[in-house]
Amino acid sequence: MKARQKRLVLVGLALVGVAGATTLALSALQSNISYFFSPSQVMASEHPTDAVFRVGGLVVKDTLARQEDGLTVHFEVTDNAAVVPVSYTGILPDLFSEGQGVVAKGRIGDDGVFYAEEVLAKHDESYMPPEVADTLQTAHVDGIVEQTTGTEPPRSMTQ
Amino acid sequence: MIPELGHLALIFALILATAQAAMPLAGSLTGHRPWMTMARPLAYGQFVFVAIAFVALVEAFLTSDFSVLYVAQNSNSLLPGIYKVSAVWGGHEGSLLLWALMMAGWGAAVAAFSRNLPLPVVARVISVMGMVAIGFLLFMLLTSNPFERLFPVPPEGRDLNPLLQDFGLAIHPPMLYMGYVGFSVAFAFAIAALIGGKLDAAWARWSRPWTTVAWVFLTIGIALGSWWAYYELGWGGWWFWDPVENASLMPWLVGTALIHSLAVTEKRAAFKSWTVLLAISAFSLSLLGTFLVRSGVLTSVHAFATDPERGLFILIFLCIVIGGSLALYAWRAPEVSEGGRFDLLSRESALLLNNLLFVAFTVLVLFGTLAPLIYEAFNLGKISVGFPWFNKMFLALAPFLALLLGIGPATRWKSDQPWRLTKLLWLAFALSIGVLVLTSMSAVSGDDLWVPIGIALAAWLLFSHLTIVRDRLKHKQQGWRQAMVADFSGNGRSFYGMVVAHLGVAMFIVGVTMVSNHQIEKDLRMSPGDSHEMAGYRFEFLGAQKVNGPNYRADQGHFLVYRGERQIAELFPEKRSYLGGGMPMTEAAIDAGFFRDVYVSLGEAVGGGDWALRLYYKPYVRWIWLGAALMALGGAIAVSDRRYRTARARSTAPAGAVGAKA
After folding, report:
1. ipTM
2. At the fourth CATH level, which superfamily is domain A36-149?
């Protein structure tokens, strides 16, 4: 085989490989990403009903309730503008506590309760997931708008 | 007083690093010899001053000097001694100082162990390392001074994050950083070669042992991190595809490609531009990893408190390093001559394919890691990429890599014949097919095709490497055992290092396959006296009691584990509450075994002496880390090869080097 042919074969193989990998990666990505929504957005029904998504905010004080089976917990998550009830069966991460930031991944049931499959743990008590920080910031701005204008605030400023 | 000395030492180190970056390089370009000879003393000097700063910080921790802000944030007078030392790198500022210390240490090591290199090369390499050191020292002095004072002085420190109060994590960051920073040596050699315009086999031989050593450290560092996450985070996972983990995996993947590509450049003087590009990429990805971890742009379960200003500094630094080195590459690389020619079926082609697979996987991991940023930048919403995606990508590439790994080392340099390979490897291949059939029929498969595939690929690696070793020794006169010993103490180290590392891959594959498909996990509520049966093991919960540690209080559960009627383990998982910050922590109890771990971790007390807890059965999980340890061991054996110790480096590669060497 001549050097030029050989190079063509190699380049061709590389191109096929890149194209294959890209297709694979992108098609698989669609089914494996989960979007983040703030409690306000969930209340405004902007979330998907048929897909897993994430919701985050602060755990509302005095809402953490352990159910009969000892494994299921209910709590509420807020961005200081709206509240989403969450149910989770399993063991909560160490740094989970009321008043702290939290991100939960799961889906909304017909009863309006968010059934979490996973509750995000973190390593450091002073760490706040960026989405949660944003959410609180947005809700805070919304709140100011409400106070100053006295009208219904725009539902979300992240859209 | 001592903290101020440390601060001053850092400033001196920065001045020396500046001189180190400028003078030897200028000397090498103008041929001014005295300036070039300044390289070594400057590298030693920089190391000494950074070391003084580091010792000063250690001292502040050991004496619990809470007037130093960083100490007050990361230590506590109750902290056990060993963790007072490891707390030095428990936070951002200190880990940067550790990074700078290692950077200077690698520079001093290059200065010390490069006696047989031409002076201009040494001068340029040390200069480039000086430039990188400037970046980190400036970063520390401008944004993250570890010696900043705190007034009024608090009576007590905030304590080290309890997750970090652990032996595995005490040594994990130093290992990881040794690897990250070690790639700066490969980077410096590549840049020096580009500056000098002389990329040849000698360059590859010089930079090869350094690269392998860095890779060994990085391998150990990642394995330790995975092991730590497994037992310390309390939830039994060994890899989460978290951005912080990916940040360490990407340099490793490219570094693995690099050590293979360097082999081609050394033996056959081919792939030169490609090798340089990999060396630049490996170090750039180390920097990118630092940026991702430190800037907090990504959500991570591993994230620590972050600061955007620091992120900005690293981003600028990153742009200078990547942009500068790529510009230099674009300017100089076309001048680098093409290397030796090779056929489609040859060792070169096999290694090229290896490189392509590793780079492809790196690109995928990079894409998956950055996808949330990309989506946000285009206003497509806030997303996270789930780990199933990464698993899919891994499964799409890894089998090809494993197949290739069984063939590559058997091929000859330059040109090989298909029939020769077939004759050599058919038995190994047939045996692996046998393993595939047997495992897919047995209970091990568990109706999942991936289990037999994984086991068969591991078997394929084992059999093919045994064949390759036998093939290497078949012409020797002595018995195989003497032949192997003679070969090992002779010139065969790099070959046997390769074999050991590749067998590590086989072991890793078995571990991943088994634990991913056969682990059992159970969350449940248990009352004292309850038993639960799982995977043939019976867990009996005897109850929990309060215990006190040096700086924590804990609820300690008491479990007996039975296999049949025989008690095989007594486990004491804990739920700790640290006195310093009041932070709770789960301390899992694990009965580790070669073929399986059983694992108990306490969740929460749910009243009446009952506990919510989690039980795990993890088959072959140790093989994952043992496999990584074998890979690292293989790298260490390869580095001890005699070729790298010969007094005077030959300037050209031995023509037609022995086919079987890697």
Report:
1. 0.78
2. Nucleic acid-binding proteins (2.40.50.140)
